Amino acid sequence: MSTTTVVHLLRHGEVHNPDGILYGRLPEFHLSDNGSEMAGLAAEWFSGRDIAALYSSPLDRAEETAQAVADEFGVAIRLDDRLIEAGNTFQGMTLSRRSVRDPRVLRRVYNPFRPSWGEPYSQVVARMVDIIKVVRKEAWGREAVCVSHQLPIWMARRVAEKKRLWHRPDRRQCNLASVTSLTFEDQKLVSVGYAEPAAVLYRKQGPLVPGA
């Protein structure tokens, strides 16, 4: 008989970012009060599941989201750089519709398929697939949670569903505190699921920062 293992990719909750900065991998960007509630709802969503391992991106917002799951299950958080946000040359900037005329922006957007403004999609996929394999092995026959960020999770889903990596960022299905679940029978991926445990709180969201 085959062994079923589930690896859940949990996106962090809302971040306190009143200035609308594309924060990327910058430190000291923490969950907002609303984001902390989102993390709590996500942790409750996992209640009753057989969570054997908990991994997180080392960025503050991800670790704080993971802490809610750790408190729910009494499991330790393991920080892993492979779950970190995608690198982005616009990090630290505030982008708007007028930014398309900014020479600093224009010279970086010549290739949307790579993409030219940040970490290559193929590189993001490679590190996400690598950590998923590690976590699947550790949680064999049970379930695990990996807290990460919108783009890395979306890349993992795209490759799992055998879709091209380049895409429109505004069409990503990976909302705040959402869960993308990869179910394996032995080592074979058999299904991809998606849930939004914190959907009730989305009405409180302010302006979103893409790729956060």
TrEMBL record:
Coiled coil: none annotated. One of its GO terms (molecular function) is phosphatase activity. GO terms for cellular component: cytoplasm. InterPro entries: His_Pase_superF_clade-1, His_PPase_superfam, PGM_Phosphatase. PANTHER family: BROAD-SPECIFICITY PHOSPHATASE YOR283W-RELATED (PTHR48100), PHOSPHOGLYCERATE MUTASE (PTHR48100:SF51). This is Phosphoglycerate mutase. It comes from Streptomonospora alba.
